[in-house]
Amino acid sequence: MYLIVGLGNPGEEYVMTRHNIGFNVIDILSKKLNIKLDKLKFKALYGQGKLNDEKVLLVKPQTYMNLSGEAIIAIKNFYKISNENTVVIYDDIDLPIGEIRIKKHGSSGTHNGMKSVIQNLGTEEFPRIRIGIGKPEEKENLINYVIKKMPKEEKEKLDKSIETASEGTIKIIEKGIDIAMNEFNGRNI
């Protein structure tokens, strides 16, 4: 079984913001895999289905970004899912807009949602898909940058990376993370 988690913030005011890129990928996967996000439990909105013969849980934590790890650990423990089958998808200011990076493990960097995930899981050893949102202008506050609506030209580029991240997630489930990393890392969007 795979636990696929997209990080974001619940609520209409956060729709189409940079910080909700993880939620956007889960929405695309929900359509592609025909998995309805219709359960609200474990501080998360989630759905269960299959990709080929592999069970898949798609999850959007409802705790707000900085407490995302609480939902993930609750679901992970209930379904007894291994770290290597727990994939977290999130926005990253340290990557250029639209670039994606699939990794087997790593630190949280400056991402508070990932800090919560690592703290709750007690490890950095789990796969993740980082989606670049670029850095704010020097004068702009980081929090404002990640939670404000995206400009149209940026949204078009990020929509392509969201699609690519969904394809990368499917590749991880079907063929494993090594093949997904080889195929998707460094790809120009």
Report what the structure shows.
Helices cover 38% and strands 21% of the residues. The protein is built from six helices and seven strands; from the N terminus they run E-H-E-E-E-H-E-E-H-E-H-H-H. The protein has helices spanning 21-32, 68-79, 112-121, 142-147, 152-175, 177-184, and strands spanning 2-6, 39-41, 44-51, 54-61, 86-92, 100-103, 128-132. It has a seven-stranded mixed beta sheet, sandwiched between helices. Helix 5 runs antiparallel to helix 6.
What is the general shape?
globular
- How large is the radius of gyration? 15 Å
Structural class: alpha/beta
Could you estimate the helical fraction of the residues in percent?
25-40%
Total beta-strand segments: 7
The helix/strand series, from N terminus to C terminus, equals EHEEEHEEHEHHH
Number of H/I helices: 6
Report the sheet-strand fraction.
Answer: 15-25%
Can you tell me the residue ranges where pLDDT is under 50 for at least 5 consecutive residues? none
Strand order of the largest sheet: 2-3-4-1-5-7-6
**What gap, in angstroms, lies between the N and C termini?**
30 Å
